[in-house]
Amino acid sequence: MPSTTVRRPLRPAVLLTAAVLAVSVAGCGSSDDGATATPGSAPAATSAAPSAAAGVLGVRDPWVKAADTGMTAAFGTLVNAGDTDVTLTAVTTEVSPMELHEMTMKDGKMVMQAKKGGIVVKARSEHLLEPGGDHLMLMDLREPVRAGDELTFTLTFADGRTQTFTAVAKPFTGAQESYAPGHGEPMPGTSATPGPSTSPAA
């Protein structure tokens, strides 16, 4: 009986304690909710941060054509995942001065020229930088760019934002485009294979 008598008075206390704990937990819960709301924005900011870190544009499969001297070019795919058009206005690297260029037909030959107005990447679309098309031009190499070298590039956009990306140099065995500015002459130091080329400049 004593044990029963002891138990009975304790039950309401246990219930009371449980009730108090429930209220405390509820109170903590509301405080947690507030905290969750704040972290809720934090994750949003955190997820935005990688986007910013990733850059204004995605740069997929970037590469540079290996060359010993003279000029060469960097290629890849610019990816705009945003809802507004993005205009690339300049690019720089440590190994040479750079310009944004395009290939165009002049007097029956494909020649390189500056891309007027920059390179526009439409919203929710991709823009290919490739041999025979738009490319990032390394104008006058200060040192050889050999296969396997990794170069860092900085892109500048019309709104003043910048981003960097790296690209690995590799030999290129495709068409023998002419990158000489305003001329139909082969670009020095960028022959894809040793020996004279039998391919036209285009």
UniProtKB/TrEMBL annotation:
Keywords associated with the record: Signal
UniProt xrefs under Pfam families: PCuAC (PF04314)
Bias type Polar residues, positions: 190-202
Taxonomy, superkingdom: Bacteria
SUPFAM superfamilies the UniProt entry points to: DR1885-like metal-binding protein
InterPro entries the UniProt entry points to: LpqE-like (IPR007410), Lxx211020-like (IPR058248), PCuAC_sf (IPR036182)
Record flagged with keyword Zinc: no
The name this protein goes by in its record: Copper resistance protein CopZ
PROSITE patterns for this protein: PROKAR_LIPOPROTEIN
Region of interest called Disordered, as start-end residue ranges on this chain: 175-202
Signal sequence extent: 1-28
